[in-house]
Design brief:
Number of strands: 13
Helix content: 25-40%
Bound molecules: adenosine-5'-triphosphate, magnesium ion
Order of helices and strands: EHEHEHEHEHEHEHHHEEHEEHEHEHHH
Length: 381
Amino acid sequence: MRATIIGAADRRIQELLNACGVKTTVVPEAESAALVRAGLPSTDMFVLDVRGQARVPASLVSLNRQHPRTPIVLVASRLDPVFILEAMRAGASECLVEPLAQGDIQAAIGRVAAHMGSAISGQVFAFLGAKGGVGTTTAAVNVATELARIAPGSTLMIDLHLAYGDAAVFLGAEARFSVMDALDNTDKLDEAFFRSLVVRTKNNLDLLASSDRAMTIPVDVARINRLVDFSARHYQYSVLDIPRSEPAILDGLEAVNVIVVVANQELATVRSASRIATTLRQRYGKERVRVVVSRYDPRAEIGQDDVQRAVGGQIRHVFPSDYRVALEAMNTGRPLVLGNHNRLSASFTALARDLAGVDVSDTAAQPGGGVLDRLKGRRKA
Ligand SMILES: Nc1ncnc2c1ncn2[C@@H]1O[C@H](COP(=O)(O)OP(=O)(O)OP(=O)(O)O)[C@@H](O)[C@H]1O
Ligand SMILES: [Mg+2]
């Protein structure tokens, strides 16, 4: 999706839109009148920054006249019913007020997209371990499960370990088809076909699982991009579990809003996290890369500050170390965010809500199956 921002007072709107995966063009206020007359380049929506203005600008009417089919989102300083009514009459489709939150922008984009008759513009979060075994899949499945509580039936987890990934085990799901089937058929992807490839978990999370077959062909970046793009257009939230063994996949994350790099407090992992975060920031921009610390121990020799310094960015989320709880959740196929609240599950919930930019109340958890049932593994097609 592309947006043209007119008269932006600062970079905040642009950053928020970019974080939602929207490509932006900025037109300064002084040039906007002439540009509107001359005809602006084609865009999916206009975002008019009118913060600090007491009246709805006259340019809104001419913009709407020139581009009657393009939605116009107004960003105002405060919620003034008279102002908003005036704006709607002048042709604005959405009115956002300060303080601007990611969730509000995302919701507005969703409504604009729905109005356009196009698909939704969902958020995509990718999880990548700085080393193997740090807890990446644990974090990804728990965040996905929490997001599925916010958007039941509109949250997808893709296990991008093309073969032998673990997400299905963590989620207690038995998938008949896999991410390989989706990648083999990217030209045929439509909603009905895609729904036949995913399995819906008891907790309303859709899973595109890893395959039980070894991979025979090299990873095709264009196909990964197409798959992730499809997912973003059909699910409000998509969560990707990215394998470290396939660096090519890291080039296929164009549609991803945030890449979460999972580190811990071991020197080798921290160094690796620093390298990975630097590369990803260069490729996708600073605001799209976040580092978190798994199995966090406040008494460890390498502290949170040391990790922050090493990776060159703030660590906003740490997951406490709790092996017993983590292992039990995995063995029962019941992500721990569904269970009794403990510090580890609360840390995953906090990350999920932070990524989504929303605050929601809890919903009831649902029961899972026994470990012996689950040892039997995948159901055959
Ligand atoms: N916060 C935690 N505290 C204690 N143990 C944890 C924590 N998070 C994950 N674990 C445990 O660590 C092990 C590895 O977890 P997980 O499979 O999520 O890691 P991974 O990084 O995805 O591994 P891989 O590189 O194999 O994909 C599991 O036994 C899991 O239960
Ligand atoms: Mg894993």
